[in-house]
Design goal:
81% helix; mainly alpha; 70 residues
């Protein structure tokens, strides 16, 4: 079994918080650069294509940040 020390736990929490912060920041930037509000298109207008694009961006960002943190 791997040695789980306090240093490893703290570094995992720090990297997790950095990754989540970058993720949220990128989503805010995505919302800011769009010519239309994403929430309105997805919720009110039921635009499935926009929801799929946003989901793809979320998955891609998660993969990029995950590999960058390792």
């Amino acid at each position: 079994m791997a040695d789980l020390s306090l240093e490893h736990i703290i570094s995992s929490l720090v990297y997790g918080l950095i990754g989540m912060g970058l993720f949220v920041l990128t989503l805010f930037i995505l919302e800011w650069i769009r010519p239309f509000p994403l929430e309105k298109k997805i919720v009110e207008e039921n635009n499935t294509a926009v929801a799929i694009v946003v989901a793809a961006v979320i998955i891609a960002l998660g993969m990029i940040y995950s590999s960058a943190i390792r």
